[in-house]
Structures are given as structure tokens and as C-alpha cells.
Amino acid sequence: MKNTRLLTSFVMLFICMLVTTTAWAQGQKQKASPADSTSGKIGTATITINYSSPSVKGRTIWGELVPYGKVWRAGANEATRFTTDQDIMVAGKLLPAGTYSFYTIPNKDQWTIIFNKTARQWGTEYDQKQDALRVTAKPRTGAPMSERLTYAITKDGMVLRWETLEVPVPIKPAKK
């Protein structure tokens, strides 16, 4: 009798552990647009970009999912954040050290690149009056297909890559 109770208790404990583990694993699905970041140096300035990385998933990105001529948060979920610990020159214009939300206005031949003073905001809460800097950049066809949106810091600046498109943004150290 005592052994039966002990065996029943162990079986119940095992079932509870199995159900709890399965329920926990279900809640751990990968997000559709997981958070990502990149960081690098341009001169002595450290630049960090924090963003959510959506996937192509067979969709037409440019001109459809991301419409031409409209402000885009350059990622998913919260607005992409761009941080520089020193003043830098972006496409020849001064951007003071700080953290900014990063937006774009994509078009086929030219993009508007926007650094907005309101750094932490939901991606669609853009307010043009808070723009710290706007510059333009020329998109180009990228080499391999990039399923996920990514950013890279290079010796010449930053590059947004998604699908078969790259948008390089020239960045240089600010002269002191």
C-alpha cells in the first residue's frame, strides 16, 4: 500500500514536470522579428544600432510591405535606435553624440535617412518636428539575398541590408 502511494506520487510528479516543461517550451517560440544589434567604430566614435529584424518570408518588400514615399521605422516593433558616443559627420552633415530613433523614407532611386531626437518610441509614433538630421542615400542592389533585415558598421559608414537591397550611409568622424 505504501509502495503504491509512493509510485503514484512519483508518476504524478513526473506528469506535472512534463506538462510544465511543455508549456514553458511553447512560450519560448522565436519572435517573428527578433531583436538584434550591431556595433562598430568609425574613427574613434563607437556606433551602435539596436533594431528588430523582420524576415522577407516570400513577400515583396520594397514598394509593397515597405511603401515608397512614406516614413518607415527601418525595422520592426520599436523604432530602430542609433547611438554614437562622439559627434560624427553623416553624408557631410554634423550629427551630435547621442541616441536617436532611426527612420527612412524609401524610394526607388533615393532614400531619405532620418535621425530623430525621440530615441525610445514605438516605431510608428514618428514626429518630424523632432528630427535632428535628414540626409539622402542611394540604394543599390546587394550581393546575396538577405532574408532578415540587418545593419552593419563599416569603415565607410553604416549599411542597411534586406532582401537584395543595400542602403549605404556614409559616416566620418567629425573634425575637432
From TrEMBL:
Superkingdom: Bacteria
Signal peptide annotation: 1-25
Protein keywords: Signal
Name of this protein: DUF2911 domain-containing protein
